[in-house]
Amino acid sequence: MTVNPGYAGQKLIPTALAKIRELADLVAEEGLEVEIEVDGNVSWENIPRMIGAGAQVLVAGSSSLFDGAGLHENFRRLRALIG
Length: 83
Known about the structure:
Number of helices: 3
Strand content: 5-15%
Number of strands: 2
Strand order of the largest sheet: 1-2
Shape: globular
């Protein structure tokens, strides 16, 4: 979780990206086949930062995919961000 669990609309916990990066480094060092999943404020702004830190699975919700701009357009935008 990159926010405190409980309700939508929270801001990203400032230390979350560093923890994702630390976990990604540990997974690589140990040679593990583990996907890192993040949930909480997976916003358009944070998606590139989360992926850059090592996240591979994103739980997209009201901060991005369901932000009211239209599902088709948001899928297109999401695909563009994740490459």
